[in-house]
Design a protein that fits this description.
This protein is α+β, with helices and mostly antiparallel strands. Helices cover 44% and strands 12% of the residues. It is flat, with a radius of gyration of 29 Å.
Length: 239
C-alpha cells in the first residue's frame, strides 16, 4: 500500500496560502506602483508649464493623473510631424548649428542624439538579438546582446586577419543596465532564438526565469527507423 500524503498543519496551510497570494498580488501591485510613479513623474515635469486656461484641473478642480504625460506625447508627435518637412528641418538644423558652437553641450547633444538614432532606427538590428560567448575562461558562457558589426577604426584594426568582428554588450546580473562592451569574432558567438526581453528576464531573475524553447525540426537528431537499420549478420560458428 502507498503511504498517504502527509497532512499539513494549520500553520503550514496558512503559510502556503499566504505565499500563493503574495505571488499573485506582488507583481500586480508593483506594476501599478511603477506605472503611477512614472505618470506622476511625467506630470510633475509638464503640468507646471501648461497655461491655466488649457489645464483641465482648472475647470474640474480635480487632479487628473496622466494629463502632463498625454500632453507631452501630443507635443512630441506634433514636433516630429513638423520636423519631417522642409521648414521644420531648416529650424532643427539652425538650432543644431547653435548647439554645435557650445563646447560642452555639443558633446552631450551629439552623443545622446546618436544613441537615440541608433536605438530607435526602424531598420536597426541593434540589441534585437541575443547570443552566448565564452567568458571569462573557455567552457564558461555568458549571455550577451548583439549590438552590431564593428565599424570605423575598430573594424579596420580588428578585421585585419580577415574574420568579421561583432560588438556585443555583456550585462551583469541582476542589473542589466550596466555592463561591458566587447568585440568578439562572429564565429565565436552562439546565436540564440530568445528575444532581448526574454534575455533580460533571464538576467534579472538570476537564471530562475528561463524562456520556453521548442527545438526546430532540423535541430533534433532523427534516428533511423527500425526497418532502415542494417541487418545484423550471424557470426560464424567456431569449428
Amino acid at each position: 500500500m502507498s503511504d498517504s500524503p502527509e497532512r499539513l498543519s494549520l500553520a503550514g496551510r496558512l503559510r502556503n496560502n499566504f505565499l500563493t497570494g503574495l505571488i499573485i498580488c506582488a507583481p500586480l501591485a508593483i506594476t501599478i506602483w511603477l506605472t503611477f510613479t512614472f505618470i506622476d513623474w511625467a506630470d510633475s515635469w509638464v503640468t507646471p508649464y501648461i497655461p491655466q486656461r488649457y489645464d483641465p484641473q482648472y475647470y474640474f478642480d480635480v487632479t487628473i493623473p496622466g494629463t502632463g504625460l498625454l500632453l507631452a506625447m501630443v507635443m512630441i508627435t506634433i514636433i516630429g510631424f513638423l520636423g519631417r518637412n522642409l521648414i521644420g528641418r531648416s529650424i532643427v538644423s539652425f538650432g543644431e548649428s547653435i548647439l554645435n558652437q557650445m563646447p560642452l553641450i555639443r558633446t552631450i547633444y551629439k552623443s545622446v542624439k546618436q544613441i537615440l538614432e541608433t536605438v530607435l532606427k526602424e531598420q536597426s538590428t541593434s540589441f534585437k538579438k541575443c547570443g552566448m560567448v565564452e567568458f571569462p575562461t573557455p567552457g564558461t558562457w555568458v549571455l550577451v546582446f548583439i549590438a552590431g558589426d564593428a565599424q570605423g577604426e575598430i573594424a579596420e584594426k580588428l578585421n585585419a586577419d580577415g574574420e568579421e568582428m561583432v560588438a556585443v554588450f555583456m550585462p551583469p546580473t541582476p542589473v542589466p543596465t550596466a555592463g561591458f562592451l566587447m568585440f568578439v569574432r562572429k564565429s565565436q558567438i552562439i546565436m540564440l532564438d530568445m528575444t532581448p526581453e526574454e534575455g533580460a528576464k533571464l538576467l534579472i531573475s538570476g537564471g530562475l526565469i528561463s524562456p520556453t524553447y521548442t527545438p526546430k525540426p532540423g535541430e533534433v537528431p532523427i534516428l533511423p527507423a527500425p526497418q532502415d537499420m542494417p541487418a545484423t549478420t550471424t557470426p560464424p560458428t567456431a569449428v
